[in-house]
Amino acid sequence: xxxxxxxxxxxxxxxxxxxxxxxxxxxxxxxxxxxxxxxxxxxxxxxxxxxxxxxxxxxxxxxxxxxxxxxxxxxxxxxxxxxxxxxxxxxxxxxxxxxxxxxxxxxxxxxxxxxxxxxxxxxxxxxxxxxxxxxxxxxxxxxxxxxxxxxxxxxxxxxxxxxxxxxxxxxxxxxxxxxxxxxxxxxxxxxxxxxxxxxxxxxxxxx
Length: 207
What we know:
The chain is built from eight helices and no strands. The protein is an all-alpha fold.
């Protein structure tokens, strides 16, 4: 069950898409008066209250600025439960899922081979191959980024549904595209995971 509405804490309307720079400016304005550095002369009780308030605002900001965390939080606020089955692959991402999985397995096999090489001549050859794999991974990351940007465009458009929805009740749930939002949440989760996995391999290939 949701105990904190991070949108309300930051005086932000509930929407799938938020402009991060606007959110940051609002966070800085709201948190400036309760920042611990400004409360040296306050009483212990007031300092604790302000510190708790600042920590809550900071946590809310960190949640809402990240698309995956924001969408999960929004779904939980609207449905009353955390979104489930994050591992289920969105139908629109199956082809990309297969390509990422196959490429990462091939890179891992290459890295295992690379770790066994001690010959200086072979190290030169394996370095060239590592650069080829790095180029392939960067190309795959660009495709993932294009997929992410398309998702973000859809999220921007979905804000209109939240702006027009009733404030509460079953009518609100019926007016919101929550099933589609949950699909997008899963897609964003995979994008974040793929990006992390690809960047880890790129670092390993450079060593």
